[in-house]
Design the sequence.
């Protein structure tokens, strides 16, 4: 088998010593022309920061993997300080959550107090209505003795025109 244009013959290691034709692309991956690659320009400060970061990474790897007792002590002190910092951050976030919960609790308490106040006002209104109904019952019972018929019943606060229940009660005493 003769190789054709655009094909190369390479040894196929998957078979036992056989050769397999593999097509090779003749067209370039990028269009022809001047290619311009823009590399980001870094300042000296950025380069120094990257170097320091690289050194810190290297030192932290050495510190974490070393068996030297001095480095182990340094590692333990660093872990303790990290734990303290984490504890401080946790305590600060806990205090913030506690403040939010206290604010929500205070809102709930004011809402509850408003509900209790409205309930008391409603109960007072009911008491007033009950008192008015009791007075109307007294008035209705007294109507036949005054000389009025029993069909006249009170349906409002002022049962008789231009007179109130309280006028009648005052006269009754």
Sequence:
């Amino acid at each position: 088998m003769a190789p054709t244009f655009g094909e190369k013959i390479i040894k196929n290691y998957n078979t036992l010593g056989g050769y397999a034709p593999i097509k090779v692309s003749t067209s370039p991956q990028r269009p022809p022309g001047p290619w311009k690659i823009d590399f980001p320009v870094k300042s000296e400060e950025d380069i120094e920061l990257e170097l320091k970061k690289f050194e810190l990474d290297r030192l932290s790897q050495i510190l974490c993997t070393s068996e030297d007792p001095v480095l182990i002590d340094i590692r333990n002190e660093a872990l303790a300080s990290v734990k303290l910092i984490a504890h401080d951050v946790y305590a600060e976030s806990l205090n913030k959550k506690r403040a939010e919960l206290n604010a929500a609790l205070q809102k709930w308490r004011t809402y509850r107090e408003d509900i209790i106040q409205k309930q008391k006002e409603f109960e007072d209104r009911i008491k007033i209505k009950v008192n008015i109904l009791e007075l109307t019952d007294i008035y209705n019972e007294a109507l036949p003795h005054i000389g009025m018929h029993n069909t006249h019943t009170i349906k409002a606060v002022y049962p008789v025109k231009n007179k109130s229940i309280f006028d009648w009660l005052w006269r009754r005493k």
Residues 5-16, 149-159 have pLDDT under 50 and may be disordered. Residues 78 and 108 are 44 Å apart (CA to CA).
